[in-house]
Every structure is written in C-alpha cells, then in structure tokens.
Amino acid sequence: MKKRILTRANALIILLLSVLGFTGCREYLVKYGVPEPPKPTRVAETVENEETQDIPSATDQAR
Amino acid sequence: MNLRLKIALLLESLRRKNLKQLHPLRQLFWESTLRCNVHCLHCGSDCVASVETPDMPAEDFLNVIDTEITPHVDPHQVLIIISGGEPLMRKDLADIGRALMLRGYPWGMVTNGLALTETRFRELVAAGLRSITVSCDGLEKDHIWLRQHPLAFEGATRAIRLIADYNTNYPAPLTWDVVTCANQRNIGHLPQIREMLWSLGVRDWRVFGIDPMGRAATNEELLLTDDQFQYLMKYIASEREAGHHVSYSCEGYLGGYEGRVRDHLYLCAAGISVASILIDGSISACTSIRGKYYQGNIYKDSFWSVWENGFQLYRDRSWMRKKEPCNNCKAWTFCEGNGMHLRREDGSLMLCHLHRLGQKN
Ligand code: SF4
Ligand code: SF4
C-alpha cells in the first residue's frame, strides 16, 4: 500500500517536473534506456538472421 | 537561481526521498574482470594487482541472479552492466550475455573498443546486448596518451563506427553513447572532438572530469582546474542549446547549471536504484565507491537481504552533513553531500562541484 502511494507520488512529481520544463528528470537509470531485452523466441530468430544477413562492414564504411 | 528551477529542485528532493524508501533495483553493475588490454593513466581501479586477481566465475554471478535477484524483480526492469577492467577480456562474455537474455534481463557494457571486432560485436548483439558505452578521450594523440596504447584510438573509433552503422541499418537499435574524460590535454579541443564524434555517427556524448582517485590522484595533468571545470559547464550548456546531445556525468550538484548540462536533475542513485557485485563478491553500489562502504559479500551474505536491509549509509546521508564542507551548506537539500564515489574511506569529501563553480545557494 505504502509502496503504491510512494510510486504514485513520484509519478505525479515527474509530471509536475515536466510541466516546469524538466522533461528529462527521470531516474538516473532511465538514461540508459533499460531497453526491453529481446524475447528468447525472437532471439533464436535473430541469431539465425544474424548468420544469414551481413551487418554492413564498418571498415568498408571507413573507406 | 530562478524560481522555476528552485521549485523543480525541491520537487526532485521530494522524489528522491520517496525513491529511497522504494529503492527499486534498476541497475546492477558486475565487475566481471580486472584484466584490461590498455593501461589508462586515470584508471579508477588502480589495477596494479589485476593480473593476479582472477575473474569471477560466471556461474557464481548467475547463481546470485537466479537465487537472489530474479525472485524479487521484473528482469525486464533491471539493466545489468558488465564492467571491468575491460569486459571484452572475458572469452565467455557472449555466453554470459545469452544466459542473462534468456532470463529476461537487458544487459550492457562499457568498453574501450580495442577488442571489439565486427565478429565479436555481432556475437554480443545476438546474445542480447542492449546498451553499450565506448570510451574515447579525445583526438587521436590525446586518446593514445591517456589510454597508453598505440592502437587505442583506432580501436575506439572502429567500435563507434560498428555501433553507429548497426543502429542505422537494424530495426532494434542499441542504446549507446560515447564517454570522454576531460583533462588538461583535451579540454581545449572539445568542439573538435564533438565534430569528430558526430562525423562518426555519435549523437549522444557524455563528458566528465576525472576524479582525484586511483592513478589519477597523483597526476595533476589529468585533473581540471576550477576555471577549466567552469568552461566545461559553459561548453556543455552551449552545445545543448545548439541541439547537440552532450551531457555531463551524474556526479555533482551544479546549482544554476542544473537542468542545463544533463537530462536529469542531480541525483546520486547509488544504493537507491544502483547496486554492484565486485570482482571479489563484495556488494556495493557504483563500482568506484570506496571499500568502506561495501555492504556485504555474495559469498557469505544474501544479496537480496543486503539490498533490502543494508545500504543505510546510502539511503540516509545525514552523516555526510556532519563533515566539512557540507555542514554549513545551504544547498544540502538539493545535493545531500555529492556522489557516494567522492567519499573517502574516512568520510571526507574529495570535491564539491558547487564550490568549483564558485556558486552559492
Ligand atoms: S558543500 Fe556538500 S552538500 Fe553543499 S553543494 Fe558541496 S558537496 Fe553538496
Ligand atoms: S556514486 Fe557517483 S557515479 Fe554512482 S550514482 Fe552517485 S554520483 Fe553517480
């Protein structure tokens, strides 16, 4: 219960901060994106695709 | 300081208070190895003994993940950052990454790029790498000087090109940026460094000063003077005004520069949402924090009970207020004694950013 109140309070503060123009004022960790990891099933596909599709060569680009 | 900023800072301090009670684990650093392929002048870990320090076995780390962390968190909400030393020194890095991915954790790493070949990069992306930071400390000569390796610049720029290229061509882009340690040699070249990085495809650049610790403590060429630090703040603010995403690091309450040089208002999240497992199993927050503030060890304590019940020095920082220069500081509410990593073993503070700026609150 307390946890929920604190979480909501912080969500409200973030909203108020954005009204004040501080839109990036989120938790430090959010800077790093905490991106969704690929789903394991998708991973198998990705690995397969990785094997068949070439990532364009960085050294080529450098030339 | 204008009223809008003052209200924002008060709101942020309220949010920090709530966050301390919630202390959601969001970032977990793992100091996986102390081995490194370069010999940086500023190395924070002062890795003299690194060759003798064995890497932590992957199964020890994964065991903590499985038994102590996964039962209590949503893995999608916790970013694991594999750090070092140089994480690419571990041959099993992709296997570890894959193991984390299969458990649902996004993972990232910080690298000097030297060992990041195209094959290795592809392998890591396939193993679930989601976030990567590359260190590049300036134009070629300055970078090589700081990293003490003739191929360091070539390695870093090759890594940057690989990632930029990947992000342009693939639908699931990585979160990535470049970090630069500002020092006496490169401080005068910041605009040229930014242009060089942008030409390589970088769009997110973090610049920070080197703190007087590790090898840097005894090398004055590495540390910025107060004037240079003030210039750095002015420079970052002006780049951001010009629409370039340049940021200062997370440390230091910056008074009137708050909201102008980084995306968020100052918050040291150590022990609040950030934890780490160090090479010897010690449980800490950010990896650069001094040994006195370690909270336990995975080989004898329960990580989760340490996270839940320990870290009191981090969540109640009133002890810092008893020490100079924080004892009479009017900015205490906004700052709370600066970053944990800037506290020496005896509790004293290495530096105050507000003082460096010559600002008062
Ligand atoms: S004196 Fe302490 S609390 Fe005040 S701004 Fe400096 S580091 Fe922060
Ligand atoms: S301890 Fe230092 S590096 Fe870690 S969150 Fe705090 S200010 Fe940032």
Task: Outline the structure in words.
The complex is a heterodimer of chains A (63) and B (361). Chain A contains three helices and no strands. Chain A has 63 residues and is an all-alpha fold. Chain A is rod-shaped. In chain B, strand 1 (27-31), helix 2 and strand 2 (79-83) form a beta-alpha-beta unit. Chain B has a ten-stranded mixed β-sheet with strand order 7-6-5-4-3-2-1-8-9-10. By secondary structure, chain B is α/β, with parallel strands linked by helices. Chain B is globular. Chain B has twelve helices and ten strands. Classes of the chains: A mainly alpha (63), B alpha/beta (361). The interface between A and B is large, with 40 and 56 residues. The complex binds iron/sulfur cluster (2 copies). Residues 253, 325-326, 329, 331-332, 335, 337-338, 349, 352, 354-355 of chain B line the site of one iron/sulfur cluster.
Structural class of chain B: alpha/beta
Globally, the shape of chain B reads globular
Q: What structural class should be given to the helix and strand makeup of chain A? A: mainly alpha
Q: Note the gap between the termini of chain A.
A: 60 Å
Strand-residue proportion of chain A: under 5%
**Rounded Rg of chain A:** 20 Å
How many helix segments of chain A? 3
Total beta strand runs of chain A: 0
Major pleated sheet of chain A:
none
- Order of SSEs of chain B: HEHEHEHEHHEHEHEEEEHHHH
Radius of gyration of chain B: 20 Å
Measured between the Cα atoms of the first and last residue of chain B, the distance is: 8 Å
Oligomeric state of shown chains: heterodimer
Strand content bin of chain B:
5-15%
Number of strands of chain B: 10
Give me the side-by-side strand order of the main sheet of chain B. 7-6-5-4-3-2-1-8-9-10
Bound compounds, each kind once, are: iron/sulfur cluster
The helix content of chain B, as a percent range, equals 25-40%
The largest pleated sheet of chain B is described as: 10 strands, mixed
